Amino acid sequence: MAKTRIEHVCTDCGAAHPKWAGQCNSCGQWNTLVEEVALADVANIGPATAPACSIADIDPLVSQPVTTGLGELDRVLGGGLVPGSVTLLGGEPGIGKSTLLLQLLAAWPGKALYVTAEESAQQVRLRAERLDAVRPDLWLQAETALPHILASIDDVNPNFVVIDSIQTVHDPSLGSPPGSVVQVRGCAQQLVNVAKRTGVPIVLVGHVTKDGSLAGPRVLEHIVDTVLAFEGERHHALRLLRATKHRFGPTNELGLFEMAGHGLIGVPDPSKLFLGDRRTGVPGSAIAPTIEGQRPLVVEVQALTTPAPPNVPARRTTQGIDNNRLALLLAVLQQRARIPVQTQDVYASTVGGVRLVEPGLDLAICLAIVSAITDRPLPPDLVAFGEIGLGGEVRQVSNAPRRLSEAARLGFKRVIAPRNSPGPEGESLRMLRVTTLPEALAAAGLTG
Ligand code: TYD
Ligand code: MG
Q1: Which ligand is nearest to the CA of 163?
Q2: What is this structure's pTM?
């Protein structure tokens, strides 16, 4: 038998090094190299390759997506799950990954296999009852050893498989301990081979660490076809589903769910949800028509300012908004619009637990802050969108007509928008076109 070779694998990028070093010379991360048994020496895996043929002879219909029965998931996947594809569903513990997949399994047409490597079969059965997911065609296996899982896939012959989670599955022949880079990568690769060979779609659950990256090797993201991120504030009911990688369609679609007593419910009209508890006539609140993927979302931005105590740096606290973006907007407000924000503690957040990084939100953040400082509320029928440049200019952003029609649908009457933005389709919205941030503040009635 060949002697086992030890190599040092980076837990971040998956690169293998013959010797240990403090820094990975592939991705530059520090202290990420761990000792592993070399994968190539313990398992010779690789998909059976098909012979070359003309691209015209390949049947595109074989990889048409199959609808999952969950509308919001289909939206993110661009129609559904593609046969033979492998999808990684990442998210923090407790966010609802197992719940989402159990609902998917309940709605799946045909025989499906759910491998639970974390919870007992009884726990899953109890949850399935709550989710109304108990059906004879849903097969369940509480197992962590990959060879047994592969054997059941052969025995049960399902047309859909879920592995919950990939980090708790291990293959004894790989030598390394469960959860190690070699284990996670090796097990995922074998499951990918099964999916490609049989045409059965497989979903792998992956836990993410606090900083949002998938625990274990990033290389997992290269092995699979699709990476879905399930996010949300644990204490809010709203859950956001995005594709961060998708080989079969766009990656910018957003799916929205609400966690309820009987599982996750799709949210077809999120703007209504975000504006549900809104109080009008309150200083520090601004409404922005934003875009996530192709989906318009009208959200409320709130700001609160208080004078900072002397001799300590002013606080800038955000929720749902990027901290650096807030710092930039405050600098522009100070320098280009002469708003005295330097001496103020500033708190800014989006309402409803939604996290937005879209530049179209800039103008509404600025209006909310100035409204808070001046203690003047914005008109209740006003929305605003536009990116703010460092020169204090209001710049165009994508999808203006969609933003406008969503704002009009929700009954707003006036919109502050970048000068050159395309106008609304109907007559119901009045455009207040602005070139600079000071013009926008004046149009909103906050200055002058
Ligand atoms: P879970 O799917 O176990 O999360 P993950 O697999 O990502 O770790 O979801 C756990 C949370 O969801 C738990 O805190 C309870 C809550 N939950 C509901 O609110 N309603 C439900 O119907 C279910 C099944 C769970
Ligand atoms: Mg779970």
Answers
A1: 2
A2: 0.79
